[in-house]
From TrEMBL:
The chain crosses the membrane at residues 12-31, 84-104, 111-139, 159-192, 199-217, 252-269, 276-294, 300-318, 325-342. Keywords: Membrane, Transmembrane, Transmembrane helix. It comes from the Bacteria. The keyword Transmembrane applies. The keyword Transmembrane helix applies. This is Transmembrane protein.
Amino acid sequence: MLINRDNTHNYIKKILFFLIFLSICLFLIPIEPIMPGVGLDPSWQHAMNVAISEKLELGKNIIFTYGPYIGICTHYFHPKLDSINMICSSFLSISFGYLIYNLLRKEKVTIIFLFFAIFFLISNTNYRDFIFYLAPFMLFFDFIRSDINNTERSLLHDFILYFPIGLIVLIKCSFIIPYLVILPIIFFILISSKRAKEIITISIIIFSGLIFFWTISDQKPANLLSYFISNIPLISGFSEGMSSTEHSLSEVILFWSLGIIIIVQLLFLKHKPHSFILSIVSIFIIFLSFKSGFVRQDEHTKISFSILIFVAFFIYLFSKTRSSFIIFCLCTITSFTSYKLYNNTSFSSSIKGNFVKIYDGIKLRSQHKKLKTEYQKKLDDINKQIQLPILSGSSDIYNFEQSYLLASKNIWNPRPVFQSYTAYTKELLYANRDHLLSDKSPDNLFFKVETIDGRLPSTEDGNSWPLILSNYKPIKFENDYLILKKRYEQNRDIKLDLIQKQSGRLNQEIKIPDHTGLLFCRIKIEPTFLGKFITRFFRSDKLYIITKENNNSEKKYKLISGMVETDYLISPLVEDTKDYYNLYKTDRLKYKNVKSVKIIPNDRNFLIDFWQDNFEIEFYNFSN
């Protein structure tokens, strides 16, 4: 009777592991290919696919957070990349499946079923980032448990688990961050145990995987370091550049209350050295998940709560205490409740919708030629929405609707940070400006003034505006796009004339100096020490600029401190593409001249001084 029960349990385990592996495959492998679309997110997802397919050099020609295997995360389809994305995502699924099997194979059926149920539900939220932040935590958990049990790991085991790290960090550059903490801790433990040979083995496997996946993506080996270095300003500037403070802090407090409870319980468990190290890694992973979800505090919070659930789950596996199980249940219930804050659809609707997509995807993939036909049909549909004229030479498009240009059959010649709203630091802004001055500058520009989050429009690629105004002439205004043609064979650099430099204070009205041409300015405004601390560990508080025109009308815009460190147009006020077009005319939009500005902090924040009161402002005259 006991033998039959064991056989039944083993049979159920096999079924559950198969279902877990199937869920991972359906989650990671782009079975349901997403075709190009229009809008902010679809544009960068399609543009990155095109950039990779055209072998543009990541880290040099293109500076973006995602890498050559972006399709594994977004599931966006491109005919030239589909095969490699399918193969690499399948390999990644095998690696994750093996890792989870290794972690759960000795557990009871109920534990394995619990993991499957949670993973199945979370995977249907369609945010794949969570598994790539969770993977290093599971890797570390596997290492810690084998170290406690003195289990020997085979070379094949290490290869399956460590070789894919090279692939993961080439999906999205920020996925490298948890490994930069976890791998040194693993190496420290190995050194302490006098197992230095294992460090060499693991290092060789990881480095080999990185070189292998970078090379087969048709990227030059010499550019690998540039890919990582170029992402530093994108990652470091994200907390201010993309922050949103419109939401309540109650969800933040709830998240960290659960996170702290999870960490504190580890300090009271047995295996003291290992539980202490596990607590350090756990709080780091929870912190990373918090940053990924709460800087903007929108649907991305699903990533944060998903990771929180699984961290609590694996700590329960580590401790097997009643209190850790209660904490896990509390995290699960709370996290699934928070899901409803940003979703109008239920889990059942999401699951049903995903299965319909998968079925349609399998049906579409069964007719391989139809995939390319569907892809081209979608591009044709996009082109019909706004038919951009086909121009001689190469072209770029401002600000972020790359899909329109890519569907138009023009030759795409993008600036490195090809969506202007993501050029939110001085380094990124100058990278785009330098592109216009290089011998690879585009012959044509499709220019549209558009922005996000209520920012001052002229701050987005603002230091490129003098170059564009001087080196490109308007040809046509069509479909809200100003079509610009290069005036000279080689673009000329433009030097602005400094006419005034002064100090200012927050909430102080600053008069605009007299000027003959267009007036540009730079502002050097710094956060306080506490402001810097909060930005690093949470997100930046908002800054606003209030402009007052000659007719005394006032406008309020969001300001990003990194964007205003370089030149941007302050007067006249440009609010749309027609205003920009009028800058080429003789009267230069004089009726929208600004007579004063005021920099103000977030009026909702009355507890701390986030920004320093004093700042430096410089005014520059530009005459074309």
